């Protein structure tokens, strides 16, 4: 059974949504295994643009079964809102969308906990404010976590909330935050439960049955590998395993079934939120960093925050490609670099006077790293209409070839615009 994973190898927003959409057609299942509505995956079909936060990209095609795995944290109103948005855009959503009964539920007190934590200037991570971290904290802490399946049992849910909410309120009050009423919360969530019910199932069993029947599965990562809670630039990471290692725990499908791991990268680097970023271009309004932000429309899909931008970092890419077990990479947004006289790639760091070629994933070490760039000639041509490798200007091809050499993996696709059609297969 061929199972494929689409994973971002940077700090997110590598255009995983576009690749998942392109590959989705040949799979029966598209599965999200980590995160929640902190993700923002964009799909462009001609004049139609879809932005998905919590729902798998496969949901745009009703013949695909789209699964929200047990590894996710789900805010029910967001789930329902996204479904509604799709339905009003003419995309039918029904039994093709399945939500794990083991996924965790986000409550408003999670958002409030996050708001208070992020208000502390020293402890701020620059999160999306969607309650992701506090909900995962409760999952690992066990006592105060509620799973989707529990919402379907009214009496049980009320009892659980009676146990949890007073505890949360004491904590929130101590930090000057809002408090919550058990019965109001129970009523609100029981209302959501009725709408969620038709979608809720034991997705592990469903996927295992699919596996046994030889169905093809596409696992869609949220966030990027440098935001992975274990291997990313901790503590400036998200709270889940965005690397393919998250698949086994987050869906119940053993990773040995993966036959293709596609590492998605931008032709440069972007990052939202705080944390070290050695190749960042802080070069002001007339600089290349701002130009990339403008042309690449680098503003967060979820929060609208301007994304930080910088040159490609081959040291970071080698690190994440190895961790992800990537077989190939796809180079996205190459068109954004058109018009630059020269383009740069980082290939080593200077750390405390020493040249290193490995990636120090500890934020405090990475923060002290100075990049060592290799400079390549740029290209002036508009490449958004290129459809085959030979259409690309020589300098653009050389840039892609160099990425291939530095990362040590074949580049299987190059993307030259947001539309599905603006894609060049390189094989
Ligand atoms: P994801 O979170 O990894 O799915 O990526 P996002 O959707 O957050 O961000 C990628 C952005 O780049 C979206 O706005 C896409 O429509 C856009 N995009 C994708 N591929 C290309 C490309 O090749 N060129 C340009 N200019 N934009 C692209
Ligand atoms: P996609 O799937 C880019 C970042 C946040 C913040 C950090 C922690 O679209 O690539 P969180 O709310 O998860 O606790 O925030 O992670 N972040 C993302 N950055 N793309 C994403 O998702 C992200 N999801 C979270 O900006 O720095
Ligand atoms: Mg995104």
Structure description:
This protein is α/β, with parallel strands linked by helices and 427 residues long. It folds into three domains: 3-99 and 200-262, Adenylosuccinate Synthetase, subunit A, domain 1 (Adenylosuccinate Synthetase, Chain A, domain 1); 104-196, Adenylosuccinate Synthetase, subunit A, domain 2 (Orthogonal Bundle); 268-425, Adenylosuccinate Synthetase, subunit A, domain 3 (Adenylosuccinate Synthetase, Chain A, domain 3, Alpha-Beta Complex). The protein has twelve helices and 20 strands. The chain has a ten-stranded mixed sheet with strand order 9-7-5-2-10-1-11-15-19-20, with helices on both faces. Strands 14, 16, 17 and 18 form a four-stranded mixed sheet that branches. Helix 2 runs parallel beside helix 6 and helix 3 packs parallel to helix 5. The two termini are 23 Å apart. The mean pLDDT is 96. Bound molecules: guanosine-5'-diphosphate (GDP), 6-O-phosphoryl inosine monophosphate (IMO) and magnesium ion. Magnesium ion binds next to loops.
Keywords:
Adenylosuccinate Synthetase, subunit A, domain 2; Adenylosuccinate Synthetase, Chain A, domain 1; globular; binds guanosine-5'-diphosphate; 3 domains; alpha/beta; binds magnesium ion; binds 6-O-phosphoryl inosine monophosphate; ten-stranded mixed β-sheet; Adenylosuccinate Synthetase, Chain A, domain 3; 427 residues; four-stranded mixed β-sheet; 31% helix; 12 helices
